[in-house]
Amino acid sequence: MGRRTNRQTDMRARIAAAAARLMAEDGIDDFALAKRKAARQLGAPETESLPANDEIEAELRAYRALYQADEHAQRIDELRHIALDAMLALERFTPYLTGAVLTGIAGPYAEIELQLFPESAKEIELFLLDQGVAYSTQEGRRFAGDQARAVSVLSLDWEGTALKLSVFDKRDERLALKTSQAGRVADRAGIAEVTALLADDAAPA
Question: Residues near 158 by Cβ (< 8 Å), separated by ≥ 6?
């Protein structure tokens, strides 16, 4: 039993490292896709020994710090500046930056994820229409505790970068929101926090 456990632990670590390389080198931003592809490459069953997202994220940070430090830092800075520009344009809808651009693990082609908390969801669509911004919409789900909340997700292009807007009820702003029921609470940052983050990034080491 001990040997099997050791083998599973070793395979879990190998899958995490391989998934991190796929995300760093191939621009994959989906953890689930990266871990499944890594498991296939290593000949491991996709239902066993799969690492958690946190494990892959740790390997991804280590990989980029070692092999992509300068180029990755520059791209994250670019994406955060674009995010702040979008947040300022959408300021009336109480925007928060979340996802990989905020945490600093975004790939070169990552989308920027914003959470919006307007008085009315229709206000955002009217604003985009008034600005001549084309967008598509679909329904998504977010979770507060074990309670699911339906949200409208608007996808559009902003300064040549994919931007995803998750539109919540104004009352949900106070809640700790997750992307899945079993997932961790998503970090988020408002305009002031993103501005401060960019200032810190620009400060001399």
Answer: 82, 85, 86, 112
